[in-house]
Amino acid sequence: PSAQRGYPLSVEYTPDPEVEGVPDLSIVNGRYVKQPWYVHQETGKFAIMPADFKGRRTWVLAGLLGVPRKWHVLVKAPGNLDLYTPPTTEGDRTWTPIEH
């Protein structure tokens, strides 16, 4: 697909000339893509991420499964109006298993 994912962002660090002893952080200058994405910290084998960038996003929980390991969507849920927070399970809003 030719559509760019996430939100492009340019970062340019410029130290304040009035402040002494500030480290040179110009190495972080560049283009970034902001993508909400949460990865299991210990194993890296599971991730929670948006599946689209609509007003009320669809979020998925995906896992690295099989041999060779490939990403598979395990469950999905409708998102909140807050675009950067994955949904919780409350009331009738639940994570729905995906049939494989």
Question: What would you note in describing this structure?
Answer:
With 100 residues, this protein is mainly beta. Helix content is 0%, strand content 36%. A hairpin with a 6-residue loop joins strand 3 (38-39) and strand 4 (46-50). The model has no long low-confidence stretch (mean pLDDT 77).
List keywords for this structure.
5-stranded antiparallel β-sheet; 100 residues; single chain; mainly beta; two-stranded antiparallel sheet
Uncertain ranges: none
N- and C-termini, Cα separation: 24 Å
Encode the helix/strand succession as letters: EEEEEEE
Percent helix, as a range, is under 10%
Mean pLDDT: 77
Would you spell out the secondary-structure blueprint of this structure?
Blueprint: E1 7-11, E2 30-34, E3 38-39, E4 46-50, E5 58-65, E6 70-78, E7 96-97
Antiparallel strand pairs: 1-2, 3-4, 4-5, 5-6, 6-7
Brief sketch in words of this structure:
By secondary structure, this protein is mainly beta. The chain contains no helices and seven strands. The mean pLDDT is 77.
